[in-house]
Amino acid sequence: MNLPTSETTQHHADSTASLRMVLKLMDRWQLDAEQRASVLAMGNDESNRSELFYLLLATHKQLQLLFPVNRQLAYRWMTSRNDAFGGLKPIELVQRQGAQGLQMIHHYLQRLFA
How far apart are the first and last CA of the chain? Predict the structure, then answer.
């Protein structure tokens, strides 16, 4: 019988906490069920899930830094059309291009602070 170690128990707790943060973030971004499903489907295994959660939470942090006074602008940004992405909403870029689209958004926001 294999009992969970404290390390695996902690890892599970961390994963659960990260998932809660991502779901709350999706609420704030006002993503619909289809958008949420397409984003969460990218985290189909442990390594992908960790990177996905990192990119989503990093994007959220970048948007908070970009719009420090008006949080609502930060929350609406993912669902607002953006010329930098050919007029697509950032979430549409993610839906069309998956993890690569999310990485493009992350790098775009990084360049704004360079």
Answer: 52
